[in-house]
Write a structure and sequence with these properties.
Low-confidence stretches: 1-14
Helix content: 40-55%
Strand content: 15-25%
Mean pLDDT: 84
Number of helices: 6
Strand order of the largest sheet: 3-2-1-4-5
Oligomer: single chain
Number of domains: 1
Radius of gyration: 18 Å
CATH superfamily: HUPs
Distance between the termini: 34 Å
CATH architecture: 3-Layer(aba) Sandwich
Shape: globular
Length: about 160
């Protein structure tokens, strides 16, 4: 196939700015680490910035016996561990010459918070890991990747 000069310029301009800001929701899983590495590859190609977002949930399963002090301690511990993981990923990105920022949110609805964050910060692409739950597990536990892909207007790349 032949591309004339005008088409080539259009293709290059389109690709140069295709994905300026990539969001990677990160839950410390192997799947989200693979999603991060995939986002780095895309960021290298398109000279993009990468944002890591972790949404922490308290002990949402024990509503009847809810203890806010225990919940706050759980969030503090999760926050500490999460920041250690995010620092490791930031170093990997820096070694690859990619700009990265990290955010940790306390969340009541992970899907809604990811979608809202992506929209408010104008992310061009969401690269998210999937745990691959199917059947009853997916029904019972839900799928963050599926929920995000259904609710956002941004393109979503789901990495297994």
């Amino acid at each position: 196939m032949m591309i004339n000069a005008k088409e080539k310029v259009f293709v290059n301009v389109m690709h140069d700015n295709m994905f300026e800001n990539i969001l990677v929701p990160y839950d410390l899983s192997n799947q989200s680490t693979r999603a991060f590495k995939t986002a780095l590859s895309i960021a290298k190609k398109y000279d993009s910035k990468v944002t890591l977002l972790t949404c922490l949930e308290g002990d949402a399963w024990h509503h009847y016996y809810y203890d806010s002090q225990a919940d706050n301690e759980l969030i503090k511990k999760q926050n500490k561990v999460t920041k250690q993981h995010l620092q490791k990923l930031e170093k990997i990105a820096e070694k690859n010459g990619i700009s990265v920022k990290s955010y940790v949110l306390t969340s009541k609805s992970v899907v809604n918070d990811i979608v809202t964050f992506a929209k408010s910060r104008k992310h061009d692409l969401i690269v998210i890991g999937s745990h691959g739950r199917i059947g009853f597990d997916k029904f019972l536990l839900g799928s963050v990747a599926n929920g995000v892909s259904q609710k956002t207007k941004s393109p979503v790349l789901i990495v297994k």
